[in-house]
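PROTEIN DESIGN WORKSHEET
SECTION A - STRUCTURE
LENGTH: 175
TOKENS:
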């Protein structure tokens, strides 16, 4: 079984390097793994969706603040999280491209939609040496980036190509 999971992970990484996949369960796993969670982190998630990724983050961190721009999706996610007995999540409806400064700083930020560039507002809401995982690029293709907030400025590395829905908002794409 472990070999099969590792094989799938390697196939995903190869696919990323060759131009992309969407946020399927293996992409969720890759993004979660990139956050290097120890269980003590305060996490900001942008793009709650159904709450699937939120639930995973909640099980692996101390607290998750999640921002969803669609009220109906936020309601659905809240229902799913409640059914799972997850209580360490604060869920908000708003413009995720701005983050959620009221609860900052965060140890980790995970964005599940593609931005045209790394939003400075999200980096600024990280603690020093905090980490942001975000797809960045055009509407049709992005790179999945890991951004560390170093004292001298952001350090950025790419995990490879991917394709996500656009991050819509003031610091993202227009509708």
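SECTION B - SEQUENCE
RESIDUE ASSIGNMENT:
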């Amino acid at each position: 079984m472990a070999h099969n999971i590792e094989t799938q992970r390697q196939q995903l990484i190869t696919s990323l390097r060759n131009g992309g996949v969407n946020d399927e369960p293996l992409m969720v796993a890759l993004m979660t793994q990139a956050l290097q969670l120890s269980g003590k982190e305060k996490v900001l998630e942008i793009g709650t969706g159904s709450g699937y990724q939120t639930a995973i983050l909640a099980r692996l961190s101390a607290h998750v603040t999640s921002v969803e721009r669609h009220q109906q999706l936020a309601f659905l996610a809240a229902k799913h999280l409640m059914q799972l007995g997850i209580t360490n999540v604060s869920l908000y409806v708003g413009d995720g491209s701005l983050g959620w400064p009221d609860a900052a700083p965060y140890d980790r930020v995970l964005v599940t939609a593609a931005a045209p560039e790394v939003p400075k507002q999200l980096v600024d809401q990280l603690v020093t040496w905090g980490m942001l995982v975000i797809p960045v690029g055009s509407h049709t293709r992005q790179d999945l980036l890991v951004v560390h907030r170093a004292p001298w400025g952001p350090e950025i590395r790419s995990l490879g190509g991917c394709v996500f829905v656009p991050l819509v908002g003031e610091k993202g794409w227009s509708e």
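SECTION C - NOTES
Helices lie at 2-17, 25-34, 52-60, 71-83, 120-124.
The two ends are 43 Å apart (CA to CA).
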